């Protein structure tokens, strides 16, 4: 799912953290980050990018994180 490498942390560790903290952790690990505001439209494309982590956010906190 992650291509040639996986993040150095479990994606579930990001749940409950602030968006800026989660983004910094992902970017430090070399991933591109896409933030999806669940209070807005919440629509995303279905393309697979192994170097991307999507953070699904509500009220500034991560509710879910997915790779790809």
TrEMBL record:
Classification via Pfam families: potato_inhibit (PF00280)
The cross-references to InterPro entries, in alphabetical order and at most eight, read:
Prot_inh_pot1, Prot_inh_pot1_sf
- Its name, as the record gives it, is PepSY domain-containing protein
Report keywords, A-Z.
Protease inhibitor, Serine protease inhibitor
């Amino acid at each position: 799912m992650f291509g040639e490498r996986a993040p150095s942390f479990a994606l579930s560790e990001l749940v409950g953290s602030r968006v800026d903290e989660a983004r910094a952790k992902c970017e430090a690990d070399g991933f591109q980050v896409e933030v999806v505001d669940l209070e807005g439209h919440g629509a995303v494309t279905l393309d697979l990018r192994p170097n991307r982590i999507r953070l699904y956010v509500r009220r500034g906190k991560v509710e879910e994180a997915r790779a790809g």
